[in-house]
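re: ur question from the group chat, yeah i did fold both. here u go
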Amino acid sequence: MAGAAVVGRRDERLGETPVAMVELREPGSAGVGQLMDFLRDRLARYEVPTEIAIVDAIPRTPSGKPDLTEIRRFFSEAVPAVHREHVH
């Protein structure tokens, strides 16, 4: 993994749930299922993202930090061009 960013997304039942954007060093080296298994073994249930999107590059600010506004926007829109999976 080259990088990851997690943001909260509004949820009617829970108030907010985590969603993650992941940038892989080697495209295709891991899938959403593998990432979820890894996270479930290491995080509390409420910390595990409800959706993971594997992208070519995480949006960044001019200073190089993840652009959380753009990442939140990404998860609020339907973006079929990347690998996204909603997990239960």
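okk and heres the other one u asked abt
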Amino acid sequence: MARHQRGRARRRTDARDHLRAARRVSRIRRPHRRGVPGPRVRRPRRRAADDGAAGDALAAVARARDSRLGARCAGSATRHRDDRPRDRPAARGLRFPARRRPGRRGARALTVRRGLVLVLALAACGPGALAATPVPANASYTNLEFAHVGDATLRLDIDLPDGEGPFPTLVWIHGGAWVETDRTGGPAGYLTRMGYAVVRIDYRTSYQAKFPAQLHDVKGAIRWLRANASRYRLDATRIGAWGQSAGAYLAALLGTTAEVKELEGVEGNLDQSSRVRTVVDWFGPTDFSQMDTHNTVVCPGVIGLVHHDEANSAESTLMGCALQTCLDAVKRASPITYVTKDDAAFLVMHGTKDCIVPQHQSEIFVTALRAASIDVTYVSVPNAGHGTAEFFAPAIDAQVNAFLERTLKR
């Protein structure tokens, strides 16, 4: 019995000893390495000078930046008393080995990390610091603001061809009865392959503003392009315009009103010229006052004969008056009024079955251009309506290409 009690007491003592030992062990933190027991190794506190690879990499970036770009890029890390980056990757939890010499795999990882820091730091410099970098071939710029008038923000897109530039530039002016706002589309694809820069521009609709606001807008775009020509590798001496329908009307005004100061508008870069060197006019109106007089082609379907003199017509809406009630204003808005001997070269194309804009509009305009000894080519497109498929035939492309090669590209 006594032996049994002594055994129980010994087991209790052993249990207490184990408990005390367990408590002592529990006070010792083990490193996270597969549960191997051992005391916690307290690492020395990281000092500011111990940036190691992170500091070296960023210092190399700074040296490369200063030598290649010539100046500190905007938004780069500021420096304080010890001349080290304040916003270091190491301070954000990106740990780099600073003391232990890395093995083979560690060295490879360190190299990758250093390269990553270099790439990220250079990327942070932004496009302003990398302005000297060549613009890639076939570059496109979209939604560039060239003017802000009232509540309207006017933008343009630029498509560049292969090559170094500066490139001959063709401004595409979309049609749509002066109410369409979509500037996309046009001949940009094949023109860039031929070596032209193509620019698509906005202009205010007739619901937003009356004439001459639309002409002010397109002139403002031409002046903006000249002011920014070197930035986008454009040739400021070789700028032309191509428009269809309502856009052709504005292109024709660009080609005939270069020296008419009252039509320039106030949309910036007034020290630049709005003159264009060449114009491609696809079936645009040229004298509003004569449109109904020579309108003989009936549109198919339910449209019937288009009456331009009515107060709600596209032309009257643009002018803000029924055409025959404001003939002086109509004359000031017609391209044919401004034809002089120093106008741009013109390629005029019109379909024989156009029921929207009478072919007579192009015929009288070509006659006036020839009388002023302007370089003009006129193409009457058989059986073509208003912008129908006949205008996209290979023969038409060839004539446009030959004209642009002669008047704009050379």
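fwiw on the second one: The beta strands are 140-149, 152-159, 167-173, 197-201, 234-244, 278-282, 345-351, 376-381. The chain has a mean pLDDT of 78. idk if thats what u expected
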